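As a next step, we paired sequence with structure tokens, yielding the entry below.
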Amino acid sequence: MLNPFPDLLTYSMLGPFILRLVVGFIFLDLGMLKLREEKGRWLASFEALGLRPADLLLPLYALLQIGGGLLFLLGLWTQVAALAFVIFTGAELYIEWGAREILKRDLVFYLLIFAVSLSLLLTGAGAYALDIPL
């Protein structure tokens, strides 16, 4: 079947760029929430899952998400950050599945972030990135 808008394929590098920015802002927000408003719920969920010391692991996890979000926004080491986010999101899917009563997000949110991160792992950073494909 013919592509109905073949001229739009000229802008195909903007797709990963848009996804990268959106997921970067989401992970920045998730990391900040873990340090502030949702800290108590995340500590309780880490404790419920047996992840100890939760008061040390939670800030570390939040800082990794903030740092990865910044890497996404800059387009620096995008595929490495995307791989980390695939792992993080898989872990958050597990945490959400095990502690549904503690956290208020749902599995669909984490599944969507997982899919976007996996897509960026496979496609790269897109336009306006500091990464240079070899």
About this structure: The chain is about 70% helix and 0% strand.
